[in-house]
Amino acid sequence: MLTAVYDYSLPPELIAQVPVPQRDASRLLVYRRPDGQIEHRGFSDLVGMLRSGDILVLNDSKVIPARLRGANSRTGGHFEILLVEENATNDWWAMMRPGKRAREGTRIEIRNLRGEATAIQAVVTGANEEGHRRIRFEGTADIHGELDALGEIPLPPYITRAGLERMEEDRLRYQTVYAEAAGSVAAPTAGLHFTDAILRRLKERGVGVAFVTLHVGLGTFAPVKSDTLENHTMHEERYRLSAEAARQIESARAAGGRVVAVGTTTLRVLESVAAANSGRLAGGAGRTRIFIYPPKAFLAADALVTNFHLPKSTLLMLVCAFASPGSTGGRERMLAAYAEAVRERYRFFSYGDAMLIL
């Protein structure tokens, strides 16, 4: 299938630069798969659209302040370091700018948020085929414990900030209220709309809540660059589904409840695990490269809460598949829904509005 058919036109002013004042004040486009009907609602209406016995599945991964700044200890040249994945304590893969100057052996003095030098240094120890640098931190027992004081929240490239403006708000709002397991460098954004009050109301309604963990990597923002989907190499992400969460979800399914995945990251975990276990869910951890695009029959989810995604992205392809499971018709349906969202002036991407596919 051609990648170009997943393109669409989006006015730049609809790319949300800041969150709405209240998390649950975002809008909710409801897409009903049986008849293709669209409803325009508020996100808080989600509570009334779920039933007793349904189960909501959320990704509890926590975004780390993964963007660091420093200077070459020899020349003083500035570097930006974006932590990508931890190999071991103080041993990380990272994206670095300027990458060409980050040669093996380069020693970088890490600066704090005020631009002052610290005792912590990063030493480049290698590189991989993707152009990422492997770095070793010195001067700290574990860089994890220093990130709150040194690091910035790694906002996606389509959100612009002048310096450190709004940094405190982003630290709070580019994070779900239930974030627990530190490890993501991008937020599982469908969960940003939830509040403690909404989760409490859902539980009072008899809706179950279960958690998975998938640490979101930078690949989530990467467009498909190959001409065809079949030639795209999917990024890999770490996940965990506990035995208790698997039991909760399977119990709800057995009783006739709907499994409502919150976000494409959650859906990827559920489908990865189900595909490896003949359609059932079982506890475990691993890494997934699952690439979901039409036609795709889904094994583990009955509904999806998601945001609006970038043109030609793997996330858009996933929601197109979910819009019409087992067929190729979901692309046309979902792009028509996106066109209506544009006409109705919905806010797009990470800080934007939400969609519920039923």
Largest sheet: 9 strands, mixed
**Low-pLDDT segments, ≥5 res:** none
- Span between N and C termini? 25 Å
Structural class: alpha/beta
How is the CATH topology of the largest domain named? QueA-like
Mind telling me the CATH superfamily name of the largest domain? QueA-like
The helix content is 10-25%
Describe what you observe in this structure.
With 358 residues, this protein is α/β, with parallel strands linked by helices. The protein has two domains: 248 residues, QueA-like (3-Layer(aba) Sandwich); 84 residues, Thrombin, subunit H (Beta Barrel). The chain has a nine-stranded mixed sheet. A six-stranded antiparallel β-barrel has the order 5-6-7-10-9-8.
Helices, strands, pairings?
Layout: E1 27-32, E2 37-42, H1 46-49, E3 55-59, E4 61-63, E5 67-72, E6 78-88, E7 91-97, E8 107-111, E9 117-127, E10 133-138, H2 147-150, H3 167-173, E11 181-184, H4 196-204, E12 208-214, E13 237-241, H5 243-254, E14 259-262, H6 264-276, E15 284-288, E16 303-307, H7 314-323, H8 330-343, E17 354-357
Parallel strand pairs: 1-17, 3-12, 3-14, 4-11, 14-16
Antiparallel strand pairs: 1-2, 5-6, 5-8, 6-7, 7-10, 8-9, 9-10, 12-13, 13-15, 16-17
Helix pairs in contact: 7-8
